[in-house]
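Interim report, section 4.2 (structural modelling).
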Amino acid sequence: MSVALESIASAVGRRYRALRTSRTLATFCANPLNVAGLSIVTAITIAAVIGPLVAPYDPTTQDLANRLQGPSLAHPFGTDQLGRDLLSRLLYGARLSLGIAVAVTTIRLVLGTTIGLLAGYTGGWVDEALMRLVDIQLAFPGLVLALVIAGILGPSLRNVMLALAVVGWASYARLVRGTVLATKERDFVRAARLMNVSRFRIATRHLLPNVAGPVVVLATLNMGTVILGTAGLSFIGLGAQPPTPEWGTMLADGRHHLRTAWWIANVPGVAIMCTVLGFTLLGDGLRDVLDPNHETTLEKRT
Amino acid sequence: MTTTPPTLEYGPDDAATPDDESTDLLAVENLQVQFGTYDGPVRAVDGVSFSVEPGETVGIVGESGCGKSVTARSIVGLQEPGEVVGGTVHIDGVNVHEASDRTRRRLRGDTVSMVFQDPDQTLNPAFDVGEQIAESLKVHDQPERQRLLDYLHAPLFASRSDWRDHRKRAVELMAQVGIDDPADRVDDYPHEFSGGMRQRAGLAIALASDPDLLIADEPTTALDTTTQAQLLDRFRRLTDERNMATLLITHDLGVVADICDRVVVLYAGQVMETGPTDRVLAEPHHPYTRALLECRTSRAARKQRVPTIEGAVPDRLGEQPGCPFAPRCPAAVDTCQEGKPPTFERDDGTVRCREGVVFGESDDDGGPVLEYGCGETQCAREDSSTTSDTATATARSASPPPRPDDDTDPLVSLEGVSKRYQQAGGLLRRLLGTDRCLQAVDDVTLEIAAGETLGLVGESGSGKSTLADLVTGLETPTSGAVRFDGDPVGAAGTRTAATLHDVGVVFQNPRSSLNPRLPVAQVIAEPLYADGWEDQRRRDRVGELLESVGLSERHTERYPHELSGGQLQRVAIARAIALEPRLVVLDEPVSALDVSVQARVLNLLLELQRELELTYLLISHDLDVVEHVSDRVVVLSNGEVVEAGQTERVLAEPSHPETAALVEAVPRLEHSSQ
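Predicted structure of the assembly:
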């Protein structure tokens, strides 16, 4: 037990030391856009986590007496056509949007990475078969396919998630396979083979950590697209159903009142924009510091 | 040496006022270059002064991280991302760093040319070699006209004759730098050239502008010995013919001895010693120069400890008083830690050291009061003064190697092993049966006896590494058999765990042979884990291994990028011996390392062999290393064994021309005295 604790402590210490002395972190923070992206994402994450605790009203309780109220102290973002508080709905919506984005991206990432790793490391006909599958998936326009899937399965958030997950994994598979092909020829993998390390362990311990960088970048950039996709599908009525406080649904509700109550459509719209922007900036920043070429220049002592 | 003052070809310019020191083609005065890093500015070049006269060849030597390349690049104004914070560089009387961009470009085009270290990266892969040489000619002739159409071999009609003329001159230049069949090769792309060829093409590009000064930054480091010898020969001849001055940056004292008139020894961004090559190599004044010379394996007796320089080149962060070499200097005294060491002007050069250390406190001339790197174990200092011939002779008695008896079974034997690679195998070619094959290893039969060290030498591309891969099981032979203890073994995947444990491997490049995402302790523990050792036992063994390769406990949690090249190679060695193998395959184990680090790693390998009774298969293109370590040598050429035998016999009286060429190609300090 104490041994396990000790090893955890040493691992944490190692991570902390690596982070503190990390030139990567310094490089990342040197660009204000990266910091902006990170702040937006952090803010939205915090909002999503503590939203229900701080939300002043219940997001679904109707208050028809106060419908279509403009922004005021009682309702900072105003109320919608059924008198529901927009701030509360926005906070609950952040939870939904972010949750779906994380879930969809995780499914894509796990599925794509596994397939890419398998294809790249095994090679031969397995590689060939899996990559043709990837080609087929990439040949379909993503959002249209998601639309079809969601349409067939019926409108619900869960089906939107499924649809989005199924259409997005192929780019991960491609990326991982390419990196694995390059990495598996490196000497440390050859050394591992000679040390009788099992194939599974070579894949998970030697190859996987070395392909993580580009995958993380892709996943971060993808979060934004997934949020857009979910909102889009909900907007046309295939996703979240009323009264669920989903940003896309809120946007759809608001478009009927654009002339009289601009805030109903604009509040979720701005939220979507900010979130996507935040993830894109963060992803760009990560790409700059996790780019393998970049990394070597940081690592080399001259 | 001509004494005609160099004529300025440029018109009057803002900074082009030649001063009175214009007899020097290149004058570097107190140059200081800094790099801004996260931890603060690092002083990469810290007050370097030297000069190059027309027609002279000057070598800059030092370990890596001493600021050699930065100095060279600062001379032509390519110090980015560094920053010149002090000092001046005059080329032909023009102050480079104050000159306008235009003047500087002219300088680079007309007066100075540069050859870079890595031939893979100097040439543009998108254009053919002839065009790249022609471009240099064209820039020289008409600096303002560069057209894309020319690159695409479709020049405008009006400039067609110019274009053809430049290509003709490119072919001539290629012939001059020693590219065979230049008329055929002129249309080839860089990837169709070998490393040596590419470096020659780089040289041709540099020569195209007919420069007065050629700066060559480690031009032969990436090449094998034979190619290096040819290229150095070419350098010497070209500089003589054209009366061109050369500034050669290298870490190899043998190369310096071969072609340089004068040497500048650099350490931590400071000039330690300057002087004529013969004098500096024969009787170095500065302790650092002496230490550098001592750690060459060719100077030590075979199988004996090589003197080393402990420690590493420091990062020059902030202000540090004293001599930068003091912490590693065997002759350092307390006063070395304070103030700046004075620079002594001698009639044939300079020495930057405290007076007492340089010339010895006592007056007797021959023996300065110094003890080098002989701290802990037996040291071959006495032998170092003797010539290599007598050294090899005495070594036989000095170290009785575990000589294999003839009747014992060999540990490893290869019987008629061949390896062919398919090249460019299209379906059509396969059907027509016109597949091209590359015969990497051709019918090799050899035996490695337990306890011996077998050296495998040959030019690059001779099949050395493929042979090693066949022994380790990374490749399967096309025909023939590899036997371990008499039992045939196949590819690594089909070998039993026990057989795999019997073989340890150390690769050439320590940076790529260790997983960058695992800390050192886990890297070393990996084979133990694969063998099913439990946690505590693994941990103990890792501690043991770290100690035996000379790394301390605090390295366990470091990641590979936090370690230096020498430390990484130690980690790789620790991993290789983790499961107590009987055979260790060393694939160029020290060729990526500095001389002083190389000496330390070789010492470690010899020590481990004695302690653990290891058998080594050593692959190296460096004959000095092979001569120092191995009992027997096998010479490979085009995949075939051309000669095999006892090391001293083969290297002293080679019977095959290939071996003779290899031996001949090694740049030796002794040549310089002839």
